[in-house]
Amino acid sequence: MTMRVRGYNCVGRDVDGDTSPNGGICLFTSHLYPSHVVTLHTSLQAVAVRIHIHSLVTVCCVYLPPNDVVLQVDLNQLVSQLPAPFILLFDFNGHSPLWGHDDTNARGRQIEQLISDHCLCLLNNDEKTYFHAPTRTFHSLDLAICSPTLLPMLNFEVANDLHNSDHFPLLVSHVNGTGVRNCPPTYRFHRADWDTFTRLAVITGIMVQDGTINHVVLNVTEAIRNAADAAIPKTSNFSRKLCKPLWNSAYQQAKKEQRRRWGIFRRYPTTDNLIAFKRAKALARKTRRQSQRESWIQYVSSITSSTTSQQLWRKVKTANGLYRDFSIPILETSTAIYLSPVDVANVIGQTFASVSRSDSYSPAFQATKNRLEWTNINFRCRQPLPYNCDFDMCELKRALSSAHNTSPGPDGISYELLRHLNEDSLISLLYLFNRIWREQVYPTQWQEAIVIPILKPEKIPRTLSAIDR
Question: Which of 52, 55, 169, 323 is most buried (CB neighbours < 10 A)?
Fold first, then answer.
């Protein structure tokens, strides 16, 4: 089964054969965490993924239909295939007092035996996980089971909202949080106070005349960055939430009323309260569909004769759900598996360095290369050739005006900031550039860069051969 949800990887398994329209299972993993699929050899409806949050954990989802005959040996073989530590998320359809049932059935005894044989830990408490609408009763059918080493690290709770299902979501979280990678904040130039920035970003002549090149560059960078922080707001370092055009005030109010009616019914499960909840649910569904139609009409109406081709194709791709998405995979080499994002970044960097180094050159070429790199270049000559002269202000302003607004390096200084420096600061900046040119010392800070690897099409993400620079 293949399904695309923006920001998530999907792995699923359909029901074998066409004997029943029910069943099937699907597991989504966020692109914020490295993950890869675990291949399972089982006849059960089960899928598994290894994912790295604070550490590497295997997550396995299993669905056991209530009328199917499940052998104990099949459950044991499934557990034996899961790399430890692991979390099992079950819709077992089993009854046992261990997870809040008043009675025990055969499926419940199977689960009890599975937990005992493999020394597993049950995360469930007495909270109900299933709502049976015909009888208006609540039961515990969904289970969360984990390896013993994970038990002290996990919290378990059951969500209150059914989200239009008959099963409550199980929330299994790490005690130290999710460890979500925050996005680096960037300047929002469209909201910048450029007058304040120009007034604060002062680069004096003394600042660029005294000290080494590295020290001067550090001071200039700090002065520009401090002024930018004071005059230009930044984006949040949290991941951007996806836009929901249909979510207007009417739909928000309808959903609020639906949740309120559901809360009343959970406390007092009477027929009148159930009818009131279903009425609120139907109204929320009607409001959502109406909001979807209105948002779609508004979106299509925004395409006019003045819309550029670039904007048009962006809207067409958005309407068709076409977007670029990439997740950090778990990298596998012949000698090791790299799990955390830091380890993945380091091994990619080492691979780039090994490709770029000069070990593959002949000894004679390496000797010549090393000798010439240590030879100082003499810019002095009898004739004042233009390419040997100092830079002038016209060249600096022309370079800044023609430069594109590309992403800045690790120092965060972009061309847009340099364009808004005052005349005196530009003169000092020009003096710094000429110092670098005359002294032939390239700043250490400028030798650092942010390298983004690009996944090659039709390549396996887990291998280094799938990455291009």
Answer: 52
Identify the helix (H) or strand (E) that includes residue 11: strand 8-13
* Tokens describing residue 310: 């670039």
Residue type at 429 in one-letter notation? L
pTM of the model: 0.70
| DSSP β-bridge partners for residue 25 | 13
What DSSP element (H or E) covers 90?
A: strand 86-91
Confidence of residue 466 (pLDDT cuts 50, 70, 90): low
> What is the dihedral angle through the alpha carbons of 434, 435, 439, 441, rounded to the nearest 10 degrees?
-100
Q: Decide: 144 and 170 in contact? Cβ < 8 Å.
A: yes
CA–CA dist 262, 362 (Å, integer): 76
Rounded CA-CA distance 153/87 in Å is 12
Burial 179-212 (b: 16+ CB within 10 A, else e): eeeeeeeebeeeebeeeebbebbebeeebbeeee
- Has residue 469 got a pLDDT over 50? no
CB atoms within 10 A of CB 162: 15
In DSSP notation, 15-79 reads PSSSS-S---EEEEEETTS-EEEEP---SSEEEEEEEESSSEEEEEEEE--TTS---HHHHHHHH
